Amino acid sequence: MARIYNFSPGPSVLPAPVLEKAREDLRGWRSTGITVMEMSHRGKDFIGIAEKATADLRELLEIPQNYKVLFLAGGASAQFAAVPLNLLRGKTKVSYVSTGYWSEKAIAEARLFGEVQVSASGKESNFTTIPPRPQWNVDPDAAYLHYTANETIGGVEFQAAPEADGLPLVADMSSNILSRPVEVGRFGLIYASAQKNIGLPGLAVVIVREDLIGQALPGTPSTFDYRRQAAEGSMVNTPPTYSWYVAGLMVEWLKEQGGLKAIEARNIRKAEKLYAAIDALPFYSNPVDPAVRSRMNVPFHLADAALETPFLAEAKEAGLAYLEGHRSVGGLRASIYNAMPEEGVDALISFMREFERKRG
Ligand code: PMP
After folding, report:
1. Which CATH number fits domain 259-359: 3.90.1150.10, 3.40.50.920, 3.20.20.300, 3.30.70.20?
2. Which listed residue (102, 136, 244, 253) is catalytic?
3. Alpha-carbon Rg of the chain, whole angstroms?
4. In angstroms, how far apart are the furthest CA atoms of the chain?
5. ipTM of this complex > 0.90?
6. By C-alpha distance, which of 184, 191, 82, 95 is closest to 137?
7. I need a surface site. Which of 17, 83, 252, 339 has the fewest CB within 10 A?
8. Which atom of ligand 1 lies at the shortest distance from residue 153's CA?
9. Sequential pLDDT tens for the chain (360 residues)
10. Domain ranges of the chain
């Protein structure tokens, strides 16, 4: 297959060695005579795959012992509901910071179960910046403080975990998990859908401090109950086994790349050169406050919006695909997750310069 550079926001590009390993394993898993796709989730072969993926993730993210790691169906959207269901723990209020589209989705879902206090919102700046931490209004009676670590559509990313004033800090890391080191011990809970930096869709990884589970709201469906899922090895129902297996391959690949510090250095280089190319020419623009620009998702506009269609068509011709912005905002967006090689970013930058020379 002639590979193109895939700038899709998710499902997104996978590392070539991960695809190669998956292809090899499709010939048959060891001597079982079947493939991973066909395995019982309760058989010893899949349990081995699941346990190794979990152990490798724990090692890579340096997850402390007092945290459970769950692999759950339903993506991050299911977690928008599972988080309040499990973490309200008898309280009525929850605090959320709104930095864009995905925070708003999380807030809307939390409102089904509790009273949501919006502690801070970037709406006034059209979500191009994050209100400074001292301006946040965090209710001390809230059950937790939730934020979206990286806004996949708006391209706004927290460069550090915010102070939570003693509340359990909860983060949606769907689009930046494993892109940099994080101090898991500062969080009550981290969740992420897998289809960006952890592989395939349908799966969410949940990392939750043990003392926060076990008090789910009465009526919580059993598949959403962290205590039950933790007790049953994320197998209250059949988990997305193939996505879990690919998550294991992604983590192995990251370890081979030198771990999170090494991938972070590469991600910084990729993002800095792409933003520099955008800022260098008035033909292109990115509206986000440079202090909070995302290293993973880079939205940009052309000064002449009418040129977006030819830009996309010619980029595709040049092997640079899926650069359209989200349908809610339009424009263009390059998603440059861990698996996007630096050469892909270089090729995009060259194309952008060339397109500007021809059309600018
Ligand atoms: N949160 C963020 C930050 C996302 O980018 C996405 C998906 N793009 C989601 C949540 C929802 O994930 P899913 O569609 O897997 O439920």
Report:
1. 3.90.1150.10
2. 102
3. 21
4. 63
5. yes
6. 95
7. 17
8. 5
9. 789 999 999 999 999 999 999 999 999 999 999 999 999 999 999 999 999 999 999 999 999 999 999 999 999 999 999 999 999 999 999 999 999 999 999 999 999 999 999 999 999 999 999 999 999 999 999 999 999 999 999 999 999 999 999 999 999 999 999 999 999 999 999 999 999 999 999 999 999 999 999 999 999 999 999 999 999 999 999 999 999 999 999 999 999 999 999 999 999 999 999 999 999 999 999 999 999 999 999 999 999 999 999 999 999 999 999 999 999 888 999 999 999 999 999 999 999 999 999 998
10. 16-256, 259-359
Q: What's phi and psi for 151, nearest 5 deg?
A: -85, 110
Tell me whether residue 136 is annotated as binding. no
Q: Is 196 a catalytic residue?
A: yes
User: What is the atom index within ligand 1 of the atom nearest the CA of 148?
Assistant: 3
- Ligand 1 site-directed mutation target among 127, 158, 191, 193, most atoms within 8 Å of CB: 193
CA geometry: angle at 340 spanning 334 and 341, to 5°? 125
| Active site (annotated) includes residue 102 | yes
**What is the distance in A from the centroid of ligand 1 to the CA of 109?**
13
As for ligand 1, residues whose beta carbon falls within 6 Å of it are 10, 75-77, 102, 148, 152, 172, 174-175, 193, 201
d(CA 58, ligand 1 centre) in Å: 22
Which CATH number does 16-256 carry? 3.40.640.10
211 is catalytic: no
The Å distance, Cα 281 to ligand 1 centre, comes to 32
